Backbone:
């Protein structure tokens, strides 16, 4: 016997409400209300975004001990401390390190930080010990990127000698169909970003002092 239309509508409404709540939780994972409302470095680069995520984690380490792990983010550098195997399934060639490499600590404004061998974002803000902001979009084959975006990593040291690491992504759609690509991948972004934030925290917390290693071919100082 078919369900009454009213029951079907109620079920669909409930399903949509749950989906909205889940998506909101994923977009705001770990962040406080103050962090969600705060203006972060790089926000001005993508005004009036169509999609924003703000995620955060508390790290039991000083900001100075967290920054080196952020500074060396990137493909061909320190990796992204996430699920390398999943990223490499799509050809990203990511190999996350558990060492601080001096050769990867320089991240000047204008430098390229690769997400994959053929995809890079540009360093828009670099404030050592405080903030790293990457900017750019991902081209769709021969088509220019359908969106502009920033990816910010901001450190705020707390009085109890812990550090809050806040990661924010802002997207402004440049094509009407950009949202059809960005919105669905936000679920994947959540999974990878949460692992990355935890990966940075684990490395910073378990690094006893300035544990470093040389890059292949790098001479000893």
Residues:
């Amino acid at each position: 016997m078919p369900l009454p239309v009213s029951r079907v509508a109620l079920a669909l409404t409930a399903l949509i409400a749950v989906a909205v709540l889940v998506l909101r939780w994923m977009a705001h994972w770990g962040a406080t209300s103050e962090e969600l409302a705060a203006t972060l470095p790089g926000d001005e680069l993508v005004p009036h975004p169509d999609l924003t995520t703000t995620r955060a984690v508390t790290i039991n380490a000083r900001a100075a001990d967290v920054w080196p792990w952020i500074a060396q983010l990137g493909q061909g550098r320190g990796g992204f401390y996430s699920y390398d195997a999943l990223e490499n399934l799509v050809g990203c060639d990511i190999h996350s390190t558990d060492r601080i490499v001096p050769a990867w600590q320089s991240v000047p404004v204008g430098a390229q930080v690769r997400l994959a061998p053929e995809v890079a974002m540009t360093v828009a803000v670099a404030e050592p010990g405080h903030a790293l902001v990457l900017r750019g979009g991902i081209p769709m084959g021969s088509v220019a990127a359908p969106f502009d975006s920033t990816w910010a990593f901001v450190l705020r040291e707390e009085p109890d000698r812990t550090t809050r690491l806040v990661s924010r992504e802002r997207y402004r759609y440049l094509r009407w169909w950009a949202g059809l690509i960005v919105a669905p991948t936000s679920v994947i972004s959540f999974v990878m970003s949460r692992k990355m934030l935890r990966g940075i925290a684990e490395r910073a917390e378990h690094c006893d002092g300035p544990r470093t290693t040389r890059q292949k071919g790098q001479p000893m100082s």
Observations:
- Strands lie at 51-59, 112-116, 119-127, 131-135, 147-157, 163-173.
- The chain is about 35% helix and 25% strand.
- The longest helix spans residues 178-206.
- Residues 14-20, 209-221 have pLDDT under 50 and may be disordered.
